[in-house]
Amino acid sequence: MPKVLSVKKNHGVADQVSYIAFVEYEDEPVSMVGFAGNTSGSPGPVVMITGDNMQVFVSNPGRFGPKFDEAWVRKFFEEAT
Known about the structure:
- By secondary structure, the chain is mainly beta.
- It contains 1 helix and 5 strands, in the order E-E-E-E-E-H.
- It has one domain.
- Helix content is 11%, strand content 40%.
């Protein structure tokens, strides 16, 4: 199970926000995973950005919480197992 060490929030424009999660996987160095989305209304769309800058839309982002925030990011990794 991945362990979220910390989450850093970055503000954008027009309710846009991004989070950088520092995540530790067993037997691997700490990874940085980014998420970009909107703080208004239900979460979505949300884009996940990996360390090699690959961008992937998160399917059904509402399953990780009703609001795109730090708790949403942590829930994403809890459900990743």
